[in-house]
């Protein structure tokens, strides 16, 4: 932990860290209902509160975590569970490709911690900040926001598992996460390549949604990448 906090007392680093904390709280609050749903679902499928809380804290990936819960509850083969989680999370490798130059000068311990914190929300939240205030202290913004989102996610899962009750049908909890992502998407749409990428990736993902194993999401990401590279050239 000491290695992660080196340089934190510096005013500029502390300011970036606190900005990340402040900006991430609304986002973290928005995903809290989804994490509560994960906890409730896991308990309903036979997981203990301790098991699902530890799983959330270590796995830290909502969509793949839910898929793994359903597969394990259905006695799915371990290889199928792992493969499904990898397919759903393959997008994080693309996030890493963008963030790697920002963190290139950091220590291995800090890089490892930052890689663990990569999720859709902190990635989308950090892009506008890095574009406008990219500098030696900008990574503290990512760290502050990432910690808050991780804490909210883990505590939300714990709360859901502790409740042990179902979510009322009138509450559209399945819409919470997509709405959060839509809110994060619009600040990033600054030029033609970004708009074209978003439209193509979203359209293909929706059209291919019926495909098994969440392959529609992967197909949408790949098509969006091709379009984005084409327009950038």
UniProtKB/TrEMBL annotation:
Protein location: Cell membrane
Membrane topology per record: Multi-pass membrane protein
Keywords: Cell membrane, Membrane, Transmembrane, Transmembrane helix, Transport
The organism's place on the tree of life at top rank: Archaea
GO cellular component, one term: plasma membrane
GO biological process: L-valine transmembrane transport
Coiled coil residues, start to end: none
Pfam families: AzlC
Principal place of residence: membrane
Keyword Lipoprotein (UniProt): no
Ranges annotated as spanning the membrane: 25-45, 52-72, 78-100, 112-130, 142-163, 170-189, 213-231
PANTHER family referenced in this protein's UniProt entry, alphabetically: INNER MEMBRANE PROTEIN YGAZ (PTHR34979:SF1)
Family (UniProt): Belongs to the AzlC family.
Name assigned to this protein: AzlC family ABC transporter permease
